[in-house]
Design brief:
two-stranded antiparallel ribbon, 71% helix, 296 residues, globular
Length: 296
């Protein structure tokens, strides 16, 4: 029979969640519902009252550039997430071992966590623009004939500048999650496998990686969701065309014609739906993978 103090503890825990739940409902769920309502034609503040109508969804779904924008949005969401996950796995495993300067490395890698994304954008522009510090340096030592000959890293179709900002900011976050998980799990299983004659690669793939999978899945989900809905970095460092869906939504919302704002809301709703569906598919696949391994 459950003790009264246990029930009181559970009640206190539930009451403690109320402030965060209210904030979540107001600022996320409330904003999403308002966005959906406006995308369906109810926006009296803009002189629009056609609810319910799907004309704003039809407007962008029939746009020839939709699939280019959707593909680019997935590109900026998936590629840095995969690269960052690989780098974070390497760093977290490396930090779990003793080496000279480990304390300093554990301090330095966390610095980007305290720096806003826009500061990272400014640093990338300062370093890699065609007139930035690297361009001037290579010009000064005679590698290139002028700063304008420096390779174009920013505002190109490949999105190298966007990738650099994402990785610079997100690798420390994923590394912190994975490394913290390794500290909690301990190294007993790795040491036992080593004593039994397993190689470093075997230990990583058959012992370390399976134990880190829950933390890896959780961190990549967070990063993917953020990248998919990110606006400021692609807006500043993107090529201009095609744009990500979030940048397209912003341009419609910033249009002088207020009648286009419901279309922007339709794009935002579409982004939310596609990213949620992608995350759900990812979780389903992960759960099936764990079932095959007998862990669920």
């Amino acid at each position: 029979m459950r003790q009264p103090h246990a029930k009181n503890g559970n009640l206190k825990s539930l009451l403690g969640l109320i402030p965060a739940t209210v904030v979540m409902l107001v600022f996320f769920v409330g904003a999403l519902l308002l966005c959906i309502v406006q995308s369906l034609g109810y926006a009296p503040q803009y002189g629009i009252n056609q609810f319910p109508t799907f004309q704003y969804y039809q407007a962008f779904l029939h746009d020839d550039g939709l699939w280019n924008s959707l593909g680019l949005t997935f590109y900026y969401a998936v590629v840095p997430t995969l690269i960052g996950a690989a780098l974070s796995l390497f760093l977290s495993v490396a930090f779990a071992k003793a080496f000279k300067g480990r304390g300093f490395a554990l301090f330095v890698y966390k610095i980007p966590l305290a720096v806003p994304y826009l500061v990272g954008v400014s640093i990338v522009i300062l370093l890699f623009a065609n007139g930035g510090l690297f361009a001037r340096f290579f010009y000064a030592i005679g590698v290139i004939s002028s700063p304008g000959d420096f390779p174009r890293f920013l505002q190109n179709a490949e999105g190298w500048g966007i990738m650099m900002v994402y990785l610079w900011k997100q690798v420390p976050f994923m590394t912190m999650m994975l490394y913290s998980n390794l500290l909690v799990l301990g190294r007993e299983e790795e040491e036992s496998a080593l004593l039994l004659g397993a190689s470093s690669l075997q230990i990583f793939f058959y012992v370390t990686l399976p134990r880190l999978m829950p933390a890896l899945v959780g961190s990549t989900l967070i990063i993917f969701a953020f990248n998919f809905g990110s606006f400021e970095v692609p807006f500043i460092l993107g090529a201009g065309y095609p744009n990500t869906l979030t940048v397209e939504a912003w341009r419609l919302f910033d249009d002088a014609d207020y009648a286009r704002r419901p279309e922007a809301m339709a794009i935002v709703t579409f982004v939310t739906f596609v990213s949620s569906l992608s995350i759900l598919a990812y979780l389903v696949l992960y759960r099936r993978f764990e079932r095959k391994r007998g862990r669920v």
